[in-house]
Design brief:
Layout lengths: L6 H26 L4 H21 L12 H24 L2 H8 L2 H13 L5 H18 L8 H23 L5 H23 L5 H27 L2 H4 L6 H12 L6 H22 L8 H5 L11 H7 L10
């Protein structure tokens, strides 16, 4: 470990970031009782735009806003928008403790996508972890035994599209400006959600506007704490802290939404978490992974309200002790 770095401090910062993210999701669920996911995503992103704009103005590196890889940037923007509205829909219609294990499948999907996109060579150990982890997702969803609703499909869509967006960052992130990669999903959100907004519009109450501001603030705060966590601790220690969100899901679900917890969901969550943690450990082992796609993804599913922390770090010129890609 590099001098001056503290894995303990990094882990604590990551746990705090995940607690804030989980609170962000609980507020989304509260708003989802009255508003469409489209309306929530649109206004939460709109409220986060002024703060994000100040951050982006800090990027003083010379360059233009024309993408170097326009098609990759477009696909990433579309996937990020879909991830956001799908995740918000899932949080609104499923118990929190069911949504997280499905989203936790992202490291498994990223590992598979890294093969064609990055040329990653995945050995037997990681393939086994992927297969076992996907079995864990099936345990949570229980097709044929439990009713499979739009919420489950939305969560699976968010995991898949979030994985595609994440792997594209690993593909082009070292060439594209962070401003381009952060602004393109925001622009896509305003265009797509703005076009759909009249179809689902419900007048906003002042209290709910305040909750939308909380969603915007907590999304960015979580990202900043993740930056600090990865600057302090090693990725192999910090990355698994994302799974602590399942604890908050149980707590918030129990106390605020009258959501129970069942054995298959917790069993499936445990299988997915164990598989994802094993993949992180394998990637951190010398000479196992050339690209370290999961470690470099840095945790949380990216939406327009929870931007990729590594991109914010680049925009703020905070390469610091750990660097970023």
């Amino acid at each position: 470990m590099h001098a001056g770095r503290s894995n303990g401090k990094g882990a604590v910062l990551a746990l705090l970031a995940m607690a804030i993210y989980a609170t962000h999701d609980a507020v989304v669920k509260t708003l989802g009782e009255r508003y469409s996911a489209v309306q929530i995503v649109f206004f939460a992103a709109l409220l986060s735009f002024p703060i994000l704009s100040l951050i982006l103005l800090n990027d003083k590196r010379e360059g233009h806003l024309r993408p170097i890889h326009p098609w990759w940037v477009l696909v990433r923007a579309v996937c990020t928008v879909i991830t956001g509205v799908s995740a918000f829909y899932a949080f609104s219609h499923l118990p929190l403790a069911q949504v997280y294990p499905i989203l936790f499948a992202m490291p498994l999907l990223i590992t598979v996508l890294a093969i064609p996109v990055l040329g990653e060579k995945v050995g037997l150990h990681r393939w086994a972890a992927v297969i076992i982890g996907l079995i864990g997702v099936l345990i949570v969803v229980r097709p044929g035994q439990a009713e499979l609703g739009l919420g489950h499909i939305a969560a699976l869509t968010a995991a898949l599209c979030g994985s595609v967006a994440a792997i594209i960052i690993r593909k082009i992130g070292h060439e594209e400006r962070s401003v381009v990669l952060l602004l393109s999903p925001l622009l896509g959100n305003f265009l797509a959600m703005g076009a759909a907004l009249p179809l689902v519009w419900v007048p906003l109450e002042l209290r709910d506007l305040g909750l939308l501001a909380v969603v915007a603030l907590f999304g960015l705060t979580g990202a900043f704490l993740q930056i600090l966590a990865y600057r302090e601790g090693e990725a192999a220690i910090v990355a698994p802290m994302q799974y602590s969100q399942i604890v908050w899901a149980v707590v918030y679900g129990w106390f605020f939404f009258d959501e129970g917890i069942d054995g298959p969901t917790m069993l499936g969550a445990g299988v997915v978490i164990a598989s994802g943690t094993y993949i992180v450990w394998r990637e951190s082992t010398a000479n196992v992974s050339q690209n370290r796609p999961v470690l470099e993804t840095r945790g949380r599913t990216e939406t327009v309200t929870t931007p990729r922390s590594s991109l914010l770090q680049r925009a703020l010129n905070l390469t610091g002790r750990s660097g970023t890609r």
